[in-house]
Specification:
With 450 residues, the chain is of the alpha/beta class. Among the domains are: 101 residues, OB fold (Dihydrolipoamide Acetyltransferase, E2P) (Beta Barrel); 136 residues, 3-Layer(aba) Sandwich (Rossmann fold), CATH 3.40.50; 31 residues. It has 13 helices and 13 strands. The strands form 3 sheets. A 5-stranded mixed β-barrel has the order 1-2-3-5-4. It has a 5-stranded parallel β-sheet with strand order 7-6-8-9-10. One of its GO terms (molecular function) is nucleic acid binding. Its main location: cytoplasm.
Length: 450
């Protein structure tokens, strides 16, 4: 019996995928279905399910194909899509990679929009050959929009920040309503007649298709096409496309973006040129040798034959890896937050403020005790001082003199304590309570006791 050859799951899946990729019936498939499980990744890629009454089909639409969409897909919306059916190897599921999507059912405004777009395109009004270059360093920028709208504030703020030496002239115009298209066309004609600006920014903020309809009128398209001044259109948001966008010399996704396109950044131009030159030179030298060798190896590989499919698969893998990274990051920071909260609780329990409070109370008590001890010592010393003062007062000669006694001094001012210290005829001084007496000794009597 011959030995059976077993395939790995990945090998089988890869084989099936290649069968899908080379099948012409699975390329550029047109599908009608209802959207469910819609999710738009932060990268701009859209993931959803197409379903009908009996089946479901996974679908992916990468950001490169979503930029030109004029609506935002929602769950429950019926759509018409075009794309390639292939297998996502990581899960083994087949899915459609959508290249174009439109609502299933076209309104009157949308039909009128498409008809005018086709008419003007056939007249060559969208031709790149007719588009004028935007001056790299304009002296004056003309702005055609509503003077009260937020779009004007955004444009003025951006120009002042990026290129403050540029002069801005505002040409007021209605941007919504029945007379808006005529007002916009007249403002463009006036700007061309005056020749004050080097470039014009024409636009308004976002809104519904009805609110933006003035920029889908033929009179506005013709005014933009006939303008001698280069025009940058700035209508609505990035997903809003009007006829004016196709006719204009340059289309900006928003009014702020139009201001950034109209003027350079004073500090970035030279720096960007030098950096790109150095980077390009270095990169080209390194790449030429590397890619020459690599190309030889890849010429017959699957990736070389179907690079777009490999690229799309890697984009999907990147999205999934980004989601995992985000979840792991959130989990990591949550753990760190819990640890921080626990540490904070421990520190609060052992906070030095409590010990400081106890020390403060002890210091206050010691201060009180010290005051009491000082008062006791002061009282004791005061009493001792009074006693000593009384004692000294009792033996003070002045106090004795108060009682009628006196002090006798000789001519040499020495105190005389005995009769032997004087002689008859000596002059003596007797100090008494209220003065001094000068006396002369007439007689000395010895041995007489008082």
């Amino acid at each position: 019996m011959s030995e059976q050859q077993y395939l790995s799951v990945s090998a089988l899946t890869k084989y099936i995928k290649r069968k899908f990729d080379v099948d012409p019936h699975l390329q550029h498939v047109y599908i009608r279905g209802e959207i469910s499980n819609f999710k738009q990744h932060t990268s701009g890629h859209m993931y959803f399910t197409l379903k009908d009454e009996k089946s479901r089909l996974l679908a992916v639409m990468f950001s490169a194909h979503t930029r030109g969409m004029k609506f935002v897909p929602e769950n429950g919306m019926k759509v018409l899509v075009r794309g390639d059916v292939t297998v996502y190897e990581a899960s083994g599921q087949y899915q459609v990679y959508v290249k174009h999507m439109a609502p299933d059912g076209i309104g009157d405004l949308y039909l009128a929009y498409e008809q005018l777009k086709k008419k003007l395109e056939e007249k060559g009004m969208f031709s790149e050959q007719h588009k004028k270059a935007i001056p790299p360093y304009p002296h004056t920028v003309g702005v055609i929009t509503s003077p009260t709208g937020a779009a004007l504030r955004d444009i003025l703020t951006t120009i002042k920040r990026r290129y403050p030496i540029a002069k801005v002239i505002i040409y007021p115009a209605l941007v919504q309503g029945v007379n808006a298209a005529k007002s916009i066309a007249l403002a463009i004609s006036k700007a061309n007649e005056r020749r004050e600006a080097d470039v014009l920014v024409v636009g308004r903020g976002g809104g519904s298709i009805e609110e933006l309809w003035a920029f889908n009128e033929e009179i506005v398209a013709e005014s933009i096409y006939d303008s001698d001044l280069p025009i940058i259109s700035a209508v609505g948001h990035e997903t809003d496309f009007t006829i004016a966008d196709f006719v204009a010399d340059l289309r900006a996704p928003t009014p702020t973006g139009a201001a950034e396109m109209a003027v350079p950044h004073m500090n970035e131009v030279l720096e960007r040129l030098m950096n790109r030159k150095n980077r390009l030179t270095r990169s080209m030298q390194e790449r030429i040798h590397f890619e020459s060798n690599r190309l030889a190896r890849l010429e017959k590989s699957y990736a070389f034959r179907y690079p777009q499919k490999m690229y799309e698969q890697k984009l999907e893998q990147l999205d999934r890896a980004t989601e995992r990274l985000q979840k792991n990051s959130e989990r990591y920071f949550m753990n760190k937050k819990e640890a921080l909260e626990q540490m904070d609780a421990i520190l609060r329990r052992q906070h030095p403020a409590e010990a400081l409070q106890r020390s403060k109370e002890s210091l206050e008590q010691r201060h009180k005790n010290l005051n009491r001890a000082m008062m006791a010592i002061l009282k004791q010393k005061t009493q001792s001082f009074v006693h000593i003062t009384s004692t000294l007062s009792a033996v003070n000669p002045l106090q004795i003199m108060e009682r009628g006694y006196g002090l006798i001094f000789g001519e040499d001012e020495k105190l005389i304590k005995s009769t032997k210290q004087v002689s008859k005829g000596d002059k003596i001084s007797v100090s008494i309570k209220d003065g001094t007496l000068t006396c002369k000794i007439e007689e000395i009597q010895e041995g007489v006791e008082s």
